[in-house]
Design goal:
The chain has about 240 residues and is an alpha/beta fold. It is built from eight helices and nine strands. The strands form two sheets. A seven-stranded mixed β-sheet has the order 3-6-2-7-1-9-8, sandwiched between helices.
Length: about 240
């Protein structure tokens, strides 16, 4: 059963060394992510699973490694990957980086979900993940729309801001129905990379009574929606 979840974005510039002189612009977002991830450790779950979007849905084995070398930074974790080990996709790489900041990466598992996976597929995957241990915690990695301004990666789409507002409300309220109802077509149009991962969260949380949500960050500094949130059961 899901007992706790953290939701964070996964832009490479979340890593200060990647952002360079612009790093202070995301200090507040990083702090919010640290707080969200810290709540996972407090939950003392039996399993911690990092979920994020990727080209295909699949689980990664314990030898998988995270690396930002494709993005120009010489950071790899572990520093000396095993021979034949696979690289994690960007969303899961940033997830591992966040866990290492809190010293909680040991034992975490990594699950990718295809960006174009249908809602029912995502919800079913979430339900399966929630059954994989007695108490499960999820770190869910996903960006909001990338069309919030004319300088955004996807240019301006007037649907982007209302879309992100709906996601922010759903994360704040732990509203699984609202996340499950996100339209894949609109999500694709506004380039919301987190849609599938958020719907995995909705599926995982569907059987957990009494979940409370807290929205910790809702920003769009570069025309891309970035959210940090945590879901938890009060008293646990």
């Amino acid at each position: 059963m899901l007992v706790a979840a953290a939701v964070c974005p996964h832009p490479p510039i979340l890593v200060p060394e990647m952002a360079g002189e612009a790093a202070p612009e995301l200090d507040g977002l990083r702090a919010a992510c640290d707080r969200a991830v810290g709540g996972l450790a407090d939950a003392e779950a039996d399993a911690l699973i990092v979920v994020g979007g990727a080209p295909e849905t699949r689980a990664y084995g314990p030898d998988a490694y995270a690396s930002l070398r494709p993005y120009g930074l010489g950071w790899t974790s572990p520093a000396d990957p095993a021979e034949g080990a696979e690289a994690l996709p960007l969303s899961l790489t940033i997830g591992r980086w966040l866990l290492e900041r809190r010293g909680t990466a040991a034992g975490a598992r990594y699950q990718a979900v295809a960006f174009d996976a249908g809602p029912e597929e995502c919800l079913a995957l979430g339900r399966e993940l929630a059954k994989e241990a007695g108490d499960v915690a999820l770190l869910v990695m996903g960006d909001g729309s990338a069309c919030r301004s004319e300088k955004a990666p996807g240019y301006l789409d007037v649907r982007a801001h209302p879309y992100d507002e709906g996601v922010a409300r759903a994360l704040a309220d732990a509203d699984t129905a609202a996340l499950a109802a996100l339209d894949p077509g609109v999500s694709r149009d506004v380039r919301a990379a987190g849609r599938a991962a958020w719907q995995v969260l909705a599926g995982a949380a569907g059987g957990t009574p009494g979940l409370t949500g807290e929205l910790l960050a809702d920003e769009a500094p570069y025309g891309v929606g970035y959210f940090a949130a945590r879901w938890f059961r009060p008293g646990l």
